[in-house]
Hints:
540 residues; alpha+beta; six-stranded mixed beta sheet
Amino acid sequence: MKKHARVMVATLAVTSFGLAACSGDGDDGGDGGETTTGTSTGVVSINGTEPQNPLIPTDTNEVGGGDIVDLLFAGLVRYESDGTVVNEVAESIETEDNQNFTVTIEDGWTFSDGTPVTAQSFVDAWNYGALLSNQQNSSYFFESIEGFSLEEDSELTGLEVVDDLTFTVALTQPEFDFPLRLGYAAYYPLPESAFEDMEAFGESPVGNGPYMLAGPDAWEHNVQIELVPNEDYAGDVPAQNGGARVVFYDNLDTAYNDLIAGNLDVMDEMPSAALATFEEELGDRAVNQPAALNQTLGVPSYLPQFAGEAGLLRRQAISLAIDREQIAETIFAGTVTPAVDYTVPSIEGFTPDVPGNAVTQYDPELAAELWAQAEAIEPWEGTLTISSNADGDHQAWIDAVNNSIRNTLGIDAEFEAYPQFSEFLDARDNQEISGLFRAGWQADWPSLVNFLAPIYVTGAGSNDAFYSNPDFDEIIREINASETLEQANALVVDAQAILFEGLPGIPLWVENAVGGYSEDVDNVEFAWNRQVDVPSITKN
């Protein structure tokens, strides 16, 4: 994939772009053929959160909805548990120049309503996601394709349907890793019925993945969603159980109590109160492994208290005032690693040597000095707030961060809680955050740049700090145009150096995948990005 000679992505086994350190073996991949579903009959229950938006792939860019969308749809490629990329709906992805691609999809794929998955299914879905007036959260992911516009409605002229099973993609520049992104939800296909009433479709989506909705009332908002195996799924990872129930919990303590009592099968998070004990309590049913997942504090660019020279000094002081090592041990029981950059060590190409990252080290004396310099320019008023959702068990560590800031800088600092994750995300999108905000990121595909571009590029769908820096945007374009992974990763360091100069986000720590499962299920595996491999779970 990294060559700029002719590339035929027949299996897309790009292990060099995968994880540098992640436990667990991936699926075998296989060559297609007949599949079976339901080798066990039990319905697997797993914790989740109410999706922020209707379940439209191009409008879903948060974990609560994303985990469900990924069970309902299948993309051109998929990511195995170890981060390896293999073909899914695609039979081949070919290019001679890394700018013009010919995509051939396998014959025989259908949506769960019985209609065929065709080249048009992808082209129509991508055009819908990219169109400015549709205001899709993931429109940014089509920016590389010719015809994309952030200023006016424009069709993706770089997409062309050749026949029912073939379409071509023309990019605005060569991008060696473009095929690797195509397993992300933004690139999923849509059936013709979706375009008749997209709002209704989002409430009752029809996909081509291993699961489908259990019925028209399967999504009980703020309670749960019920999925059943899709018997027409044509891929290599069919459901090995009788279905999946995603239960939306208000807090993780309740979910953990249900897990211990046998009323919940799988948890992909642990409450802070259980972090020191869950491995002993669950034994070999506990999960604690490296993952492509991190936490930062977002700094809204629209807040005057963080603007200008004084604002930059404050951001630096706040970062230096946080004792990450102590919080990692006392709150997280060692299940997180203090961050030294904006990416994660488990992805190949990571380096701790990033210019400017000394600001991630705890230095209370320097923090107080920088805060005093900011005070001399413009006095601080009011209380510093850190916003997050109350249903995700973040209060303990946010209180610890606030204590560290309060003790070092001598200012008031408080937790601003939103009842549900979806409400918190809406506040971020609508510029309603009054201080700092929690910004967790679970990788979409195994790439260092995935921790930068969707969050900090001007106008990107997850740029909730509303950060804009032309120099940063240009380096991201250069990364995308790189001819090799090594060249791209070198530029990732330069891109992060720009971020450390402005601190639109304050890196906190890299999280392990911590979770567990009940005695009623087997074959539970957490993937490279913490996502649970639900189809492989068996339950009798």
